[in-house]
Amino acid sequence: MAKFRTNHRRKNAAGGTIVRIGFFALIVIVFLFSFKKFSEYLDDGAEPVSLDYDNLETLPVDSIFFLPSVNCGKIITHRYYALSYCEEHELAEWVAYELLGDRLRQPWVKRTNDFREDPKIKTGTSDSRDFRGPEFDRGHLVPAADMAFNDTAMSQTFFMSNISPQRSGFNKGVWRELEELTRDWAKKFDHLYVVSGPVFTSSNPEQVGRNDVSVPDAFFKVLLDLTEPELKGIAFLIPNQTTDVPLEEFATSIDSVESVTGIDFFYNLLVPKLEEELESSFNTDLWPTNPKKYRTRVRSWNKQ
Fold first, then answer.
1. 74-77 and 82-86 as β-strands: parallel, antiparallel, unpaired?
2. 140 given a catalytic annotation
3. CATH number, domain at 156?
């Protein structure tokens, strides 16, 4: 630093030029270091993307770097979330979005309950009549309460492309508990990447309704926290049925869900070393549950 100041005092033109070049080089080095630190979260060769959180529909799909891979679906973007729609099952194979603590702390808008077909699925989706009867609920993959910060966000969760046949005790019980805890974690950690979807263990799943909607055997929810200082990930794989089992028993690694579903979740977001570290293990101590919610589920929600 002393040498830099000495050079700065020189009055000749050559010295001034050297100083200016040196100062410019220092700025470039600082910028490149900052860029390198930021891009450690991204896949090799990828460039950081500044997402327009208020309208994913305006972005090219390949620029939304947190989206998983696709098995049988077609990627559809709505304003606040994306999904991959699988015509074979008349369901989304996954939904993906960012859950922001700031949004969750805003006043909630009124629940819209405007279930309707997704206009972006040109081949058509299921409709509410497919879910008639007491056995199955119209289960959200992106919960309405996750998008309660404005009317548009709320309403778009009621597209039938976001709805799956969930057994009533599952939807009102353990799935509700997990949804509520996920919002609690997002408030605590400020920002989560969330992916949810159905799991089929049978080659010939049960179907319901005139649109032959496949009934999933289980559902998964994958969570990733990239907020410093404690980066972490966890996944949950839960059978589509009523259960009194504590939620922690369904926790697993992201790699385990990838093995079951064939979906690669964060391949375009994380560099390989970080991806291996965060997806191969999990620690339930870092994702605290709520004993009161569990007791309420067992005593009340499971019996609705």
1. antiparallel
2. yes
3. 3.40.570.10
Higher-pLDDT residue of 108, 8: 108
* Cβ atoms 214, 202 nearer than 8 A: no
Do 172 and 243 belong together in one domain? Answer: yes
The answer to whether position 179 is within a domain reads: yes
Mean pLDDT of the residues in the chain: 85
What is the number of domains present in the chain? 2
Quote the pTM value.
0.83
The Cα-based distances of 78 to 65, 156, 243 in angstroms read 15, 7, 33
**Residues 59, 28: one domain?**
no
Q: Which of 8, 89, 140, 191 is catalytic?
A: 140
pLDDT at residue 11 is higher than 70: no
Which tens digits make up the pLDDT trace of 247-270? Answer: 999 999 999 999 999 999 999 999
Distances (CA, A) of 193 to 37, 99, 186, 258: 20, 6, 9, 16
Q: Do 242 and 112 reside in the same domain of the chain?
A: yes
Q: How far apart are CA 15 and CA 8, in angstroms?
A: 7
